[in-house]
Amino acid sequence: MELISNVLRERIQSGDSTALAELLDQYRSPLLAFINSRLGPAMKTRVEADDIFQDLSVVALNRLADLSVPSCEPFAWLCHLSEQRIIDTHRRLFGAQKRAANRQVPLNSPLGGDSGGTLEDLLVSSLTSASAMLSRSQKQMRVLVAIQQLPAKQQEILRLRYTEGLTTREIAERLGSSDAAIRVQLSRSVARLQELLGDS
């Protein structure tokens, strides 16, 4: 595995999100291998390593401040975040009763089972850092407002991904699109939410 350069490390420690994106790209293959090694047979039937990697990328971006500590080793940190995403995904997929495939769940409706909260809760946990100064209720309102500014199709993709826990492949089948197109739409949706939340 290619070692991180001192220049890239310094940029990351200074809070440069572009540098983190470069790091994620550099470590993509070993991280996917790590994620694959941690996914059990049951999870592999419902989720792909790429899905976990995509969620990891969002979480890492919003916890970038963690890497400001010189002793924090980037790859180990990313592996740790990956394990957290796998655990959270397992709980979402198997910890609550599976919802009917045709059930429509509004973005701000409560989720069933043991997961609790709403879609905003799930996105807040992914899109904001634990050290943010805003209260949880304020975060929820900001995310809800941001979601409502997205096109209807992007809202639906986010709902299917975070509320129903579908993989991008399953979403593509549901919407009559390709897996690649859904991945692009999901990435753009998350990126746009980041922009909207950053501006508010």
Q: Could you spell the SSE succession in H and E letters?
A: HHHHHHHHHHH
| Outline | globular
Strand content: under 5%
Distance between the termini: 39 Å
User: What is the CATH architecture descriptor of the largest domain?
Assistant: Orthogonal Bundle
What count of structural domains? 2
Number of strands: 0
Please, how many helices?
11
CATH-defined superfamily of the largest domain = Winged helix-like DNA-binding domain superfamily/Winged helix DNA-binding domain
What is the CATH level 1 assignment of the largest domain? Mainly Alpha
Mean pLDDT across residues: 76
Sheet of most strands: none
Q: Given the helix and strand composition, which structural class is it?
A: mainly alpha
Uncertain runs are 96-105, 111-116, 128-136
- CA radius of gyration is 17 Å
Using the coordinates shown, work out and report the CATH topology of the largest domain: Arc Repressor Mutant, subunit A
